[in-house]
Design goal:
mainly alpha, 13 helices, flat, about 325 residues, disordered C terminus
């Protein structure tokens, strides 16, 4: 609203000259404040726009945006304009209330983006905490490793029981030969310390930071290499950072049929709804194939056999 109003600044000024009854026109100071506030709110507008889409943004994207907001708020507090500094001080107090409770969790979630891993945490934390950065980075890292050990212990329990039962069966056939082999291995040299999945994952090079990268698909295809991390990514990346997608799925607002469209054949209406979904996907840069689009069917409740417009498109 502010951005639109600022465009009509000259209109308000001319109105004050032509209409003697118009006494409450904004002063130059108020126009200047409006421009400053509008400029600052652009950050929130763009970030809200990204997280308000219905494309299910993952929690790994949240850390970067929240850090950007915190850094900007801390810079705005030092503004010479008292309106901006006072407004930002109140916003920063509210922000810190939530930041202290979630920064570790969203920091751990950002590690499970192979384009960032620990590098993103090491980049933003020093900008935010200064001298306390090393402690905060270690805190995020320790929580990640503790969570990994917890998942690893839960996943290894069933495998240990299977291994023990298998060893009981093979012991009857192989006798003491494998026991002798174990003693031979122990006597020939020290065993190399085995690195964990998390160590190997963090030591690998970062992937290119491309906008089209699909984090969930990457973890789906790398499950054999990082089975424990895949389970962690499944749970951490499933944390919703926006309620818009779920609200869009369950709300009935905006789906009312106008009197004109209610006269159309149900198959035609369904075709229009599917076409709308495909067109929006094309505009958003997504592939609009029938296999990827799941559109609502108007006649689902009626269970009519030959009513699917999707099969006729």
């Amino acid at each position: 609203m502010l951005r639109t109003t600022i465009k009509y600044k000259e209109v308000f000024n001319k109105l004050s000259l032509t209409d003697t009854n118009y006494k409450s026109y904004p002063t130059e100071e108020q126009w200047s404040n409006a421009e400053d506030v509008s400029d600052k709110l652009k950050l929130f507008y763009h970030i809200t726009e990204q997280f308000s889409e219905t494309q299910y943004p993952t929690s790994s994207q949240y850390f970067t945006k929240v850090c950007e907001i915190k850094l900007e708020l801390e810079a705005w507090v030092k503004e010479l304009n008292p309106l901006i500094s006072d407004m930002t001080s109140a916003m920063l107090l509210k922000f810190k209330k939530y930041w202290d409770g979630v920064h570790i969790l969203i920091g751990v979630a950002s590690i499970f983006d192979p384009r960032y891993k620990m590098r993103l945490v090491k980049f933003f934390i020093p900008l935010i905490y200064g001298e306390e950065a090393s402690t905060k980075i270690q805190e995020v890292r320790s929580n990640c490793y503790d969570l990994f050990q917890d998942y690893k212990s839960k996943l290894s329990a069933p495998h240990d029981s299977l291994a023990s039962s298998s060893s009981e069966v093979t012991s009857f056939t192989q006798g003491d030969r494998l026991s002798s082999f174990d003693r031979f291995v122990a006597s020939t040299g020290a065993t190399v310390e085995k690195r964990s999945e998390l160590d190997m994952y963090l030591e690998e090079d970062l992937l290119p930071r491309t906008p089209s990268f699909d984090n969930l698909s990457w973890w789906k295809t790398n499950g054999l290499k990082f089975p424990t991390l895949q389970k962690m990514a499944r749970d951490l990346l499933a944390i919703p950072v926006s309620s818009v997608a779920s609200e869009s799925a369950f709300t009935t607002s905006g789906r009312l049929i106008s009197p004109h469209r209610s006269r159309l054949h149900p198959t035609t209406l369904e075709a229009l709804m599917c076409a709308r979904t495909w067109l929006w996907n094309d505009l958003n840069g997504l592939t609009s194939t029938a296999d990827q689009v799941s559109c609502p069917t108007l006649l689902d409740e009626e269970d009519e056999p030959n009513s699917s417009g999707l099969s006729q498109l």
